[in-house]
Design brief:
- This protein is an alpha+beta fold.
- The protein is built from eight helices and ten strands.
- Strands 5-4-1-2-3-8 form a six-stranded mixed beta sheet, with helices on one face. Strands 6-7 form a two-stranded antiparallel sheet.
Length: 239
């Protein structure tokens, strides 16, 4: 709700994909990563990618952090490894919010992404049983969400999932992958290592390079820069 609010969803499963992390904010900027993105598994019997097999069993963690105050963390077990099913299960079990969630990716023959998208619909307090039943029927009859977004729009997806329900479009924002990493952040991260470890890095024959796990951007530091950071860390420790 606030400009500095962030929502982080982590699926920590025992599958070959490892940890999956996604972070988003109210401005529509999102980022995420898969610990092992090069997983190769046979497709399922229905011809779809075996996301559940890649994720495995484990825990779903949802962290809501605001600009001030303690963050809220909720946890639920991974029920299938299929992302949408686990998000809906988390809301039902951990936050007691009836939720319809769909998510999908349409992959081309060369493994490029043709389309990707999702839908998240939640019942507000006081919603009627008839509305809940209609949402369930609409979700069951809806085509694959990735096919809707293959040339379609979020408004078209809303019309399918909310068919027969009167609704208003309150807001629309542009979403996109944005990673705020920069050299200043990696420098601050190096300083937290302290004088001794920075001096060990300075004496090492290997160059120092930090890579962002979200976007893959790399930041290289020369020996002179590491030495200067070690001296700064020593001054900070004495202050």
């Amino acid at each position: 709700k606030g400009d500095r609010d962030r929502l982080t969803v982590t699926l920590a499963g025992d599958g070959p994909a490892g940890r999956l992390v996604a972070v988003g904010g109210p401005d529509g900027a999102v980022k995420g990563y898969v610990e092992n993105p090069r997983v190769e598994l046979p497709v399922r019997a229905d011809g779809k990618l075996d996301v559940g097999g890649a994720v495995g069993k484990g825990l779903v963690r949802v962290l809501r952090s605001a600009g001030e105050g303690e963050p809220y963390c909720g946890v639920n077990g991974i029920v299938s490894g299929e992302i949408a099913e686990d998000v809906a299960a988390y809301y039902a079990a951990s936050e007691q919010i009836p939720t319809v969630c769909a998510a999908g990716v349409l992959v081309d023959r060369d493994w490029s992404c043709l389309s990707a998208g999702g839908a998240l619909i939640q019942l507000l307090p006081g919603a009627s049983d008839e509305t809940a039943a209609l949402l369930e029927r609409n979700a069951a009859a809806a085509p694959a969400i990735s096919s809707i977004y293959n040339g379609g729009t979020p408004e078209e997806a809303a019309a399918i999932y909310l068919a027969g329900i009167e609704y208003d479009l309150f807001d629309s924002i542009e979403c996109g992958y944005v990673c705020p990493c920069n050299r200043s952040r990696t420098t601050r991260a190096l300083l937290t290592l302290g004088k001794d470890e920075l001096e060990d890095m300075y004496r090492s024959p290997e160059e120092t390079t930090l890579s962002c796990q979200f976007c893959g951007r790399s930041y290289a530091y020369s020996k002179e820069e590491i030495k200067a950071l070690a001296e700064k860390a020593a001054r900070m420790a004495r202050a």
